[in-house]
Amino acid sequence: MVFFEILGGLVALGGLGLAMSARVIKQFEQGLVFRFGKLQQGVRGPGLTMLVPGVDQLRKVNLQIVTLPVPAQDGITRDNVTVRVDAVVYFKVQDAAKAVINVEDYRFAMLQVAQTSLRSIIGKSELDDLLSNRERLNQGLELMIDTPALEWGIDIDRVEIKDVALPESMKRSMSRQAEAERERRARIITADGELQASKKLSEAAGTMESTPGALQLRLLQTIVEVAAEKNSTLVLPFPVELLRFLEKNTNVESPVKAEAPVAPPELTEEPKEPA
């Protein structure tokens, strides 16, 4: 009877020890085993892994892509414009051992590097680059963050600038500039249209002048269009031949010499004889 009690106690202790030594590592994790504070060779993969109770310590590392928002940073661009820029960094752990041993908290370290790199990018760039050339700035920011991240076993997936906030005075100035640019383009388009229209009208006038019947056909077409409208306009056709006759007669100059005005005779007073 005592034997069975001892055997049952040993089985219970064995089961308890087995439960304490068994660990489960998920599919997206890797496990690092420290024995008496020293990292053991090899990384434990997903599944069930066994530890020595009271001796081994398991450290799990997540291998999923981490989304790290970078708080908005204030800075002055190279052309002396105050802006406020925020970004987001996507990264994942490539080497679990480096991420645990080389840095105390790799998430906090990545955040600090991203903030300082973002402020550096703001100071090296102009406002137009921040607004219209973000792809190149994203690549430059990624290179700046990637250099220290490699020592921590971190792989940078991508870095993106989210928003660029401008002062209200700068927004109003840019709005006026954009409006002036739109007005300039509208005037250029209008002037170009008028130039093309004048060329077409000049060609049409030359064609009508070379073709005698074209002007009469155009006159008849205009009369038909006016008559089709419901209005009280009265159209009186005027013969084109009469216009040409009047034009020819006005071009012929008949010089008429004006007679010179005759000056009135001067009245001279005769001297009186003395009595």
TrEMBL record:
CDD domains: SPFH_eoslipins_u1. This is Regulator of protease activity HflC, stomatin/prohibitin superfamily. Residues 253-275 are annotated as: Disordered. The keyword Hydrolase applies. Residues 20-178 form the Band domain. GO terms for biological process: proteolysis. Coiled coil: none annotated. It comes from Lentzea albida. GO terms for cellular component: plasma membrane; side of membrane. Keywords: Hydrolase, Protease. Belongs to the band 7/mec-2 family. It holds the Pfam family Band_7. GO terms for molecular function: peptidase activity. The keyword Hydrolase applies. It comes from the Bacteria.
